[in-house]
Recover the amino acids of this structure.
């Protein structure tokens, strides 16, 4: 809309709003029809905005949760109960953690002399009568479930104004954490799946749908690896609340998904098609989510994961994931693939109809594998299976990288890292005495400095200035890496992505790129390389250290050469897990030897004996 | 903050009120830091069921940052104007960070993590509002200002009238129009 047209409309609006009833109608009749429609809409919006008290309060007060919640993320959680304190018949033994919903304690039930996990709900949640009613109902239903793979709920109660939930205490970790730390074998994955389905089978028999099956809701007991599914029933109360924020705005639900591309919704990846479309769900939604979870356990990847919520939803509704049999890290049997694809049938009628059916198939698979293993054991020893780079997996549009385009900037600061890599040819220091270790004939020296320049509205408004080494950057800093090698050598630079679930760390190839050095890692003496060539890297809003790995070597490094130059289609992102693992392994293996670091007022110099220098530049930003 | 003497901030504020835009560049980060610090402190202190009073917060920042003996009354309005802008920025920064926040934590708590959804959704509305305000600012800077002062700065219409040097009636009308337009933008019923 042009400012002129806007001025016209606002004038008419102003006049119309000061009139009411007939007078307003009369006035509006005389208005130009092309403007009339928009004025009418605005008047209607004005009425609705007043009715709904739209932005009626004050932003910071209405959104205080934003500030609070972050505090809880960053600061040690505050606990309302202390060790030794008594709550009803429970005595607090220890604080286990806290989340937005409340705190969790390890406690002793003095009546029955048993250890329990005590979840004390936050006041905010406990004061919501409607939600509490739901919780109470659901907890009551769930507490009737008595199955070894379901976390037992003992009591849902209220003492001294605190609302709490006492459950069986499991000393263990969630499947999410388990996946992070353990490399599961197919047999173990099948065992976990069987137990989850046994839990679901029992719950479904009792007409309880979980609705939120995901690795965070599955616990594995440390001592015997027994699986416990958490929060039966509670998931429903939570889900209810989740959708209620949508239904309040009804048709808004769809736009909410579309317009919030960066909002990560915790559970979207495990949602069934019917859930994602907000249709009615039944027990088969749990079967879908279990299928997603098995897929993730086997492949280390989410079967449906897009760059945004809406991309993910489209994948859930339309995409068939890469068959598990095609992943080479873990050899998935064809039967497991068949089971998973049946669980992930988009059409509910083609899916497993009951948890029991799926459970039977998984048990049969387990039996068959046990028999085969027995035969294997008695015939030939297991030969190690070669790991081949897995095929390209469609991961949807380009993920937001850590060095991505920052969103809004009042002040944009550009930082250039000028890294000079200097090659010291074989000027071996003489060995003096037998005690000194032998000095290798080669020594690598790498020098870099960071240059910061402030930008405003896209224009530089301050001269660039150099800093010695690392600093804490603000969110909207821009970065350019400049490298120079007085001697020839091979240069590789990678940006380490943030860890994501159980998937291997992802790297972005910053050098070589197809344009920067014609795709070659070999630098001539004194060649200056700019990375990126013309633009600048920017930090996004994600806080924390950013790592840029420098690898400089006399000889080319075959495993890194095999990765090739940065793929422009993925903006350098390495998408295949196997390839990322190669980079990760290489870096962790060779970064053990730390260079000596010296700084003057302009630059940092790294020195390392030998033919290979691997060094992470840590760029802290906030 | 402590090493920034009060008189310097007072001076910057005076310069900015006098029309020197460069003074704002220096002022902005100082006030941002103080308001952010106070907002966080208020939140941790008042987490237990109290509310965050934006005006009280800005007042406290004002008293702390500005040398009261050397300041003309007009500077106070200016301080509130810049503070409203900064409160907007602080909240949007938080909202964006929330959108990216990673979940984690102890084993038992993870199942409770859903709650974060609420804050994130609230955050996404705030981000949408911010985007819409940017469009409004281009078409109609004054009405955008009214929204900023009222919604982010917590100022009353009377105070806004003082800051913008217009009548209170004008502020009320500006508010009605801007709010109706923003409502349209956020509910997706915009005409253009």
């Amino acid at each position: 809309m042009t400012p002129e047209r806007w001025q016209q409309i606002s004038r008419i609006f102003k006049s119309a709003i000061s009139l009411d009833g007939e007078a307003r109608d009369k006035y509006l009749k005389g208005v130009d029809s092309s403007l009339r429609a928009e004025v009418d809409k605005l008047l209607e919006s004005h009425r609705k905005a007043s009715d709904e008290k739209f932005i009626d309060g004050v932003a910071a007060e209405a959104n205080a949760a934003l500030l609070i919640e972050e505090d809880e993320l960053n600061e040690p959680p505050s606990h309302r109960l202390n060790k030794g304190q008594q709550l009803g018949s429970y005595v607090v033994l220890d604080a286990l953690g806290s989340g937005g919903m409340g705190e969790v304690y390890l406690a002793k039930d003095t009546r029955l002399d048993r250890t329990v996990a005590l979840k004390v709900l936050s006041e905010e949640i406990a004061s919501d009568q409607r939600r509490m009613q739901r919780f109470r109902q659901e907890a009551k239903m769930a507490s009737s479930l008595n199955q070894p793979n379901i976390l037992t709920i003992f009591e849902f109660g209220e003492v001294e104004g605190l609302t709490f939930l006492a459950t069986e205490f499991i000393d263990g970790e969630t499947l999410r954490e388990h996946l992070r730390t353990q490399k599961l074998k197919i047999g173990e994955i099948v065992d976990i799946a069987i137990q989850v389905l046994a839990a679901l089978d029992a719950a479904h028999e009792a007409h309880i749908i979980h609705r939120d099956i995901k690795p965070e809701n599955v616990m594995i007991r440390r001592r015997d690896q027994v699986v416990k599914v958490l929060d039966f029933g509670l998931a429903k109360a939570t889900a209810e609340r989740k959708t209620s924020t949508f239904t309040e705005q009804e048709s808004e639900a769809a736009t909410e998904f579309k317009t919030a591309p960066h909002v990560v919704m915790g559970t979207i990846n495990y949602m069934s098609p019917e859930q994602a479309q907000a249709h009615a769900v039944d027990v088969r939604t749990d079967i879908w989510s279990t299928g997603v979870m098995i897929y993730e356990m086997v492949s280390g990847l989410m079967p449906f994961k897009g760059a945004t919520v809406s991309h993910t939803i489209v994948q859930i509704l339309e995409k068939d994931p890469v068959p598990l049999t095609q992943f080479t890290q873990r050899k998935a049997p064809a039967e497991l693939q068949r089971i998973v694809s049946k669980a992930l049938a988009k059409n509910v009628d083609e899916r497993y109809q009951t948890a029991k059916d799926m459970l039977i198939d998984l048990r049969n698979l387990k039996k068959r594998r046990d028999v085969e293993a027995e035969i294997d054991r008695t015939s030939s020893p297991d030969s190690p299976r070669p790991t081949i780079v897995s095929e390209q997996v469609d991961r949807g549009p380009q993920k937001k990288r850590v060095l991505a385009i920052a969103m809004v900037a009042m002040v944009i600061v550009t930082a250039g890292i000028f890294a000079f890599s200097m090659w010291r040819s074989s000027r071996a220091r003489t060995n003096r005495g037998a005690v000194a270790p032998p000095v290798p004939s080669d020594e690598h020296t790498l020098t870099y400095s960071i240059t910061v320049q402030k930008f405003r509205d896209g224009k530089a408004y301050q001269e660039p200035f150099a800093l010695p080494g690392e600093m804490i950057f603000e969110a909207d800093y821009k970065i350019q890496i400049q490298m120079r090698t007085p001697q020839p050598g091979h240069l590789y630079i990678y940006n380490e992505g943030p860890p994501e679930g159980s998937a291997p760390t992802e790297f972005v190839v910053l050098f070589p790129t197809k344009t920067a050095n014609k795709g070659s890692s070999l630098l001539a003496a004194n060649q200056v390389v700019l990375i990126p060539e013309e633009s600048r890297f920017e930090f996004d809003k994600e806080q924390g250290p950013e790592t840029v790995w420098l690898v400089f070597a006399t000889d080319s490094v075959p495993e890194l050469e095999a990765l090739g130059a940065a793929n422009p289609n993925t903006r350098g992102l390495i998408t295949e897990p196997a390839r990322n693992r190669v980079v990760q392994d290489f870096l962790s293996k060779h970064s053990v030897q730390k260079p000596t670091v010296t700084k003057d007022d302009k630059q940092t110099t790294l020195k390392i004996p030998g033919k290979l220098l691997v060094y992470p530049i840590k760029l802290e930003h906030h | 903050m402590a090493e920034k003497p009060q008189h310097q901030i007072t001076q910057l504020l005076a310069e900015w009120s006098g029309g020197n835009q460069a003074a704002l560049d220096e002022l902005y980060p100082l006030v941002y830091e103080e308001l952010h610090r106070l907002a966080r402190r208020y939140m941790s202190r008042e987490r237990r069921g109290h509310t965050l009073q934006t005006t009280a917060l800005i007042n406290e920042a004002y008293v702390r940052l500005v040398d009261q003996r050397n300041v003309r009354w007009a500077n106070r309005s200016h301080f509130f104007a810049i503070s409203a802008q900064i409160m907007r920025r602080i909240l949007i920064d938080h909202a964006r960070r929330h959108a990216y926040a990673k979940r984690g934590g102890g084993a038992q708590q993870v199942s409770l993590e859903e709650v974060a959804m609420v804050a994130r959704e609230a955050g996404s509305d705030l981000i949408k509002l911010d985007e819409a305000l940017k469009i409004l600012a281009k078409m109609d800077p004054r009405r955008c200002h009214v929204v900023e002062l009222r919604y982010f700065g917590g100022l009353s219409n009377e105070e806004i009238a003082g800051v913008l040097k217009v009548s209170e009636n004008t502020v009320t009308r500006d508010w009605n129009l801007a709010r109706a337009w923003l409502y349209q933008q956020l509910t997706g019923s915009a005409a253009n």
Q: What stands out?
A: DSSP finds 18 helices and 24 strands in chain A. The radius of gyration of chain A is 30 Å. Residues 70-77, 235-266, 380-441 of chain A have pLDDT under 50 and may be disordered.
